[in-house]
Amino acid sequence: MLIFADILMLSATFAGTQLFLFYFNPAYLQHTDILINVLNLIYYTLPIQLALLAVGLYNEKLRESHSGITVRILVAISLAYMLSTSLYLITPLPFPAGFIREWMYGSALVGLMIVRFIAIRSRYQMLGRLKVLILGAGERASLINRCMRRQSDRVHVELTGYVPMPGDHRENSNVSPVLDISGSLEAFVQSNQIKEIIIAADERRGNLPTDSLFQCKMNGVQVIDIIDFIERETGQVAVSHIHPSWVIFNPHATSNKVGRCLYWLFNCTIAMLLLLITWPILIAIIVMIKWEDGFRAPVLYSQVRVGLKGKHFSIYKFRSMKTDAESQGEQMASRRDPRITRVGHVIRKYRLDELPQLLNIVKGDMNFVGPRPERPSFSSQFEQQIPYYNHRLYVKPGLTGWAQLKYPYGDNLEDTIEKLKFDLYYIKHKSVILDILILIRTSEIVLFGKGR
Predict the structure, then answer these.
(1) Rounded distance between C-alpha atoms, residue 226 and residue 210, angstroms
(2) What are the pLDDT digits (tens) for 285-343?
(3) Which helix (H) or strand (E) element contains residue 413?
(4) Secondary structure class of 448 (helix, strand, coil)
(5) What is the per-residue pLDDT for 450?
(6) What is the pTM of this model?
(7) Quick count: other Cβ atoms within 10 Å of Cβ 391?
(8) Cβ count near 435 (within 10 Å)
């Protein structure tokens, strides 16, 4: 609905500009080709929509104040203006005369702020919420509280309550409200207008009301396993509660040689374009590192990482730590690591230290999107401690990934487990469309300094 509202608003500002020009110059429309007007409309609306996506304004779980949203809209309008200008430069379509484009982008800025204000006041995220009932009140049912703690995590669903089932382990469960259904399940579902039933019983065999569930399903009520429910609502896989069959039957993305070649060509083309665009930034980083640590100090450093199917390769980065950072042996970086230099704090915050990995992408060691590659010693440790950790080696590692979008910086075993949940989700749903979405949304991390 928000996307549709934005399209309507942008189309209205474009049409209003055309009517304004026609009012002062009645011959304007007679000398304007319809096809050119359509292309101008696309060159105006499409860059703005992509920019809004890039800065996170189409994320329904975005937690931001009015001033924060205003800043994001300003950044989006600036990015869209530059992208639109680039489109005009590389295509034969002539620039609109005078200050028409500036007028339209100014109108878009005001219109977007009005649309967002109305959307926030009307709580548009709550429209179309599913009313759900959870069968189970034990350990598996408590996954909802652990994985969907915040109110923003539940914008799509309204939890009616939890129904205890025989065999539930309720000792460590703190779910609420717990319901006592005295009558039939289907009667309760119908009277409370339940749209979806979540199966979360700890012991299913012989304990589920299969006849009632079948009747509910025949009446149009969706019945879904809690693992699939968590995966759909949070974009992660509950690693500690999945069965080995999930891995065996998981249709993770596979492709033939032609598909892999085209996918490498896609990644390589974007990498080369980024190198052409960011070369001034690369030179500036080199100068800053030399300025801080001296002319003889190394700018780049390489580390051995674990890639596709466990193959080792050397990853490249701008050096963001002191030259003797690992004099005491290998150790994971932490949030306030004293080994990080002043320049390192800046380039790590905006992920600029990762730019040399564009060379790894060209070489074919990495993709743009995928699980972040780990060092061999840490990878071996995690494989022994975390179930299904080696499953992430089924795809090439990436410069960015689903876990980097969905989970903040982590530096311990618990954080690694949480990030694995998102990596497994990506592996299961891997596609070019998802990769493009992740690449666009990575712009939000870089622009607002949310990287590490």
Answers:
(1) 16
(2) 999 999 988 888 889 989 999 999 999 999 999 998 887 777 676 777 766 778 889 99
(3) helix 413-429
(4) coil
(5) 63
(6) 0.81
(7) 21
(8) 23
Give pLDDT, residue 335.
66
Find the distance separating the first CA and the last CA of the chain, reported in whole Å: 33
Q: Which two tokens stand for residue 185?
A: 């399940």
**Rounded to the nearest 10 degrees, what angle do helices 2-24 and 100-122 cross at?**
150
CATH numbers and ranges of domains, the chain: 2-125 (no CATH), 130-234 (3.40.50.720), 257-323+335-447 (no CATH)
Q: Which of 259-268, 283-292, 343-352 is modeled with the greatest confidence?
A: 283-292
In 283-407 the beta strands, taken as DSSP E runs, fall at 300-306, 312-318, 367-369, 398-400
Are the C-beta atoms of 430 and 395 separated by less than 8 Å? yes
* Cα–Cα distance for residue pair 428/237, rounded to 1 Å: 10
In sequence order, the 6+-apart residues with CB closer than 8 A to the CB of 96 are 40
Q: What is the DSSP secondary-structure string of 55-116?
A: TTTT-TT----HHHHHHHHHHHHHHHHHHHHHHHHHSSPPPPSTTHHHHHHHHHHHHHHHHH
Residue 432 CA to residue 452 CA, distance in Å, equals 25
Beta bridge partners of 50: none
Coil/strand/helix, residue 375? coil
pLDDT tens per residue, range 80-106: 999 999 998 888 888 877 688 888 999
